[in-house]
Design brief:
The complex is a heterodimer of chains A (358) and B (264). Chain A is built from 13 helices and 10 strands. Chain A is elongated, with a radius of gyration of 27 Å. In chain A, strand 8, helix 11 and strand 9 form a beta-alpha-beta unit. Chain A is 46% helix and 16% strand. The chains are: A alpha/beta (358), B mainly alpha (264). At the A-B interface, helix 7 and helix 12 of A face helix 5 and helix 6 of B.
Chain lengths: 358, 264
């Protein structure tokens, strides 16, 4: 039996190609008909991969056909030009460990892929498509991913502007449930940041915009409360987080006009996220005690720092994976040798994986 | 024999320091179980040392500067063991261990373990006064450490340069809550310690009493400023460091003068 992985990902295929395989997660039955003893389909927005174990070699074309049969987009089923990759045995094990650990992801170190892999495994197991071979392989992959996360800093920090802002808010205030947020300007980025804050527990959100109608619309969309634009300075006395993205040509907040607003809040920090260009907040505000100002460049810089750290951690993560690949293959071959001694079959000389004996 | 226990204890704390230093250098710092275990083990050896020394002296082992340093290091570790896990300040261990290593290292290296030629008689009031005051110092030491953690995080947030350690520090507001509680704990214990000092039956050393009251007033002022929200958290954190430095100087002065003039 052979262990293999056939797939395409953001590395090899563009989004138009990948979307042809939407819905192919249910292709396990077709794959088994094509000759796979065990099959698991991992389908996310960035990849479609089949992990399988078979007695005889199932060609890449047959696998692609099985996937296309189950996809939601039917386009004649031509698969010859599709940029599929194929990994066998050791390479397949290594690839899965890298995928589960987030090393093969578009954003290195993202953790969503592990959840997606677990979901794909559970679904395949429930349908009976996973046997002992893939079971063992995937359980080890989950262990490897956990170890990579805990023993390296590959998942450290956030790499998008929105999530950096939310992470910083949590580093300042801890639980965000009691935080009061004011969104100044009803732009798309401020809406996205506000939504990210809501998803982390913020419930008191106020929106103020020059055009009151747009402000009210945004307030309604995010479940907040609209505040008239001439009233926003008063709000600064109460709020903890200010997200600003107006199109003002001059700074709305300067140390001079912010100082009286902070008079009665000496023990409460104020976190200002200024995503406007030109900036709404004078950079000198950051020098004020208890005020933490992050403009778009500062947020990007933090995101880039995190990304750089993640890249530095790739070598450590690869070392952990290599260790596990070697250990996994060694365990498999020693087990095969033990089985061969019992059954009288010749022992294996290499690290080839024989699913039926696992 | 008792000094051996102390050396083992110092090695345990040193292991936590070395591990933290290596991890920070490699940029993969994360507070783990190792630090907590190493500190816990070090604490047990400290306790064993104090117990053996106490039995040998027939009283609380606070008869010279050496024992005072060890008792203080034990108080710091004790408060950390009680407060660290409760407030999820596991990273505090990384800051606590160097302070304990410093105190114990100094005690072991400096020739301050001077035995009194005559056995120091037991005085339960005096021992209570000294031990409660030292545990208060332990709480102030932890408040000082939390203050350092606050200032490190605050600085990184202000400069937008977030290092590895930043991601393992507790949120600023949580850290400030811990500082406030440690200050209150230390202040209450210190008040009890000072008050009990008036009932020891010993003549009151004027300079030491004035200095102790000055430290008490400093902490009272910090807490008053905090209570009425007149002092910003950053300044409270800085004052915790200043306050503990003053308290430590006073402690050294009290013990040194007691050692040179009379039996404590």
């Amino acid at each position: 039996m052979n262990l293999f992985c056939v797939g395409l990902s953001h590395h090899t295929a563009n989004v138009q190609t990948r979307e042809r395989f939407a819905g192919s997660a249910s292709a396990e039955r077709s794959l088994r008909t094509a000759g796979c003893a065990e099959a698991l389909v991992l389908a996310t927005c960035n990849r479609v991969e089949v992990y399988g174990a078979s007695e005889k070699r199932v060609s890449t074309d047959e696998i692609a056909q099985s996937l296309l049969q189950n996809s939601e987009v039917s386009d004649g089923g031509h698969t010859s030009a599709l940029p599929f990759y194929r990994y066998e045995a050791e390479k397949c094990v290594q690839h899965l460990f890298r995928v589960a650990s987030g090393l093969d992801s578009m954003v290195v170190g993202e953790t969503e892929i592990l959840g997606q892999t677990k979901k794909a495994y559970q679904s395949a197991r429930a349908s009976g498509a996973v046997g002992p071979c893939l079971h063992r392989l995937f359980q080890r992959a989950f262990r490897v991913a956990k170890q990579v996360r805990t023993r390296t800093e590959i998942t450290r920090g956030s790499v998008s502007v929105g999530s950096v802002a939310v992470d910083l808010a949590q580093k300042i205030f801890g639980e965000l449930g009691n935080c009061k947020v004011l969104v100044l300007g009803a732009g798309e980025t401020s809406e996205r940041t506000a939504r990210a804050l809501i998803s982390r527990g913020v419930s008191d959100l106020r929106v103020s915009n020059r055009s009151n109608d747009r402000g009210q619309e945004l307030a309604q969309r995010v479940g907040g409360q609209a505040v008239r634009f001439d009233k926003w300075p008063q709000q600064c006395r109460e709020i903890d987080i200010l997200i600003t993205s107006t199109s003002s040509e001059t700074p709305l907040l300067t140390p001079t006009n912010l100082e009286p607003m902070l008079a009665n809040r000496v023990d409460r920090p104020l976190f200002i996220i200024d995503i406007a260009v030109p900036r709404d907040v004078d950079p000198a505000v950051n020098e004020m005690e208890g005020v933490y100002l992050y403009d778009i460049d500062a947020l990007r810089s933090v995101a880039e720092q995190s990304l750089a750290v993640r890249r530095q951690q790739i070598a450590s993560a690869e070392a952990i994976i290599a260790e596990h690949v070697a250990d996994f293959l060694e365990k498999v071959s020693s087990e095969l040798n033990r089985v061969s001694r019992i059954t009288g079959h010749p022992p294996v000389a290499d690290n080839s994986l024989h699913a039926s004996q696992l | 024999m008792d000094r051996d226990l102390l050396i083992i204890s110092t090695i345990c704390f040193l292991a936590a320091v070395v591990r933290t230093a290596v991890a920070v250098r490699a940029g993969v710092f994360r507070p783990g179980r190792f630090n907590f275990l190493a500190i816990g083990l070090g604490f047990l050896f400290q306790a064993a040392f104090l117990s053996i020394r106490g039995h040998a002296l027939g009283r609380c082992p606070l008869t010279n500067l050496f024992e005072v340093f060890i008792f203080l290091a034990w108080s710091v570790a004790l408060i950390y063991m009680l407060v660290g896990p409760a407030y999820r300040l596991s990273l505090m261990g990384a800051f606590t261990a160097p302070l304990v290593v410093l105190l114990q290292g100094l005690a072991l290296i400096a020739p301050i373990d001077v035995r009194h030629p005559v056995k120091v008689p037991a005085n339960s009031s005096l021992e209570f006064h000294a031990s409660v005051s030292l545990v208060a110092y332990g709480a102030f030491a932890l408040a000082c450490i939390a203050g350092v953690m606050y200032l490190v995080q605050e600085r990184q947030l202000k400069t937008h340069q977030l290092r590895s350690i930043f991601y393992h520090l507790p949120p600023l507001t949580d850290l400030f809550t811990a500082i406030t509680r440690l200050l209150w704990l230390g202040f209450i214990l210190y008040t009890v310690g000072i008050a009990s000092g008036f009932f020891t039956g010993q003549p009151l050393p004027y300079v030491q009493v004035v200095a102790a009251i000055a430290v008490w007033l400093l902490y009272a002022a910090i807490l008053q400023g905090r209570y009425f929200r007149r002092i910003a958290p950053k300044r409270v954190a800085a004052l915790c460091i200043i306050g503990f430095s003053a308290a430590l100087t006073l402690l050294w002065g009290i013990t040194f003068s007691a050692q040179t003039h009379s039996v404590p």
